[in-house]
């Protein structure tokens, strides 16, 4: 009797020209930043003509904003007890699995001299973090406190990934979570009137 089992192979199709451009652009923007990446270099890495990149995406800035959207990246879990939220936010931000998110945020911050990039950065921060946090916070000035928490986390990420601050790098991740978590917790807890 013959063997009727079939072996299925799953071959992935090579990326289309647009997909290849998006992949190349994402890697180059993350590694070299907005200013250090040219349309010509992206096109070369993707194996397409630079004119096609502009035709497909409009401009380098539009391509940058498209590939660094962050809307499909994981967001911090804001559920659970508020009295431990500060440390949980820092642990989430510094988790090894969040390296891509940190790199994308860093690329956005570095390119924030562009008004549309600044606008997108504000929109992403508001939608993915601030609005959700406002709903959780008790007490007065919840929106202001949420923006300040987002700013503090952004500052930590700048020290962690961009400035590569040696004092921060020398500390253990757990120590940073404890110390920085306490700083965030001071904004999370409702102010004593």
From TrEMBL:
Key words of the record: DNA-binding, Transcription, Transcription regulation
DNA-binding annotation, residue ranges on this chain: 38-57
Listed PROSITE patterns: HTH_TETR_2
Residues covered by the HTH tetR-type domain: 15-75
The UniProt record lists the keyword Transcription regulation: yes
PANTHER family the record matches: HTH-TYPE TRANSCRIPTIONAL REGULATOR BETI, HTH-TYPE TRANSCRIPTIONAL REGULATOR RUTR
Designated name of the protein: TetR/AcrR family transcriptional regulator
């Amino acid at each position: 009797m013959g063997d009727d089992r079939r072996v299925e192979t799953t071959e992935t199709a090579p990326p289309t020209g647009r997909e290849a451009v998006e992949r190349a652009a994402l890697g180059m923007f993350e590694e070299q930043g907005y200013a250090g990446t040219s349309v010509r270099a992206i096109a070369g890495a993707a194996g397409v003509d630079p004119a096609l990149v502009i035709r497909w995406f409009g401009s380098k800035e539009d391509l940058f904003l498209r590939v660094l959207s962050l809307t499909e990246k994981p967001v911090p879990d804001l559920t659970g007890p508020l009295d431990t939220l500060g440390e949980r936010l820092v642990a989430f931000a510094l988790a090894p699995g969040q390296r891509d998110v940190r790199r994308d945020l860093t690329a956005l911050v570095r390119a924030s001299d562009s008004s549309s990039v600044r606008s997108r950065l504000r929109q992403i921060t508001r939608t993915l973090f601030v609005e959700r946090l406002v709903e959780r916070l008790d007490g007065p000035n919840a929106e202001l406190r949420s923006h300040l928490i987002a700013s503090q986390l952004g500052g930590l990420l700048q020290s962690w990934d961009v400035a590569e601050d040696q004092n921060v790098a020398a500390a253990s991740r757990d120590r940073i979570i404890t110390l920085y978590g306490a700083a965030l917790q001071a904004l999370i807890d409702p102010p004593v009137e």
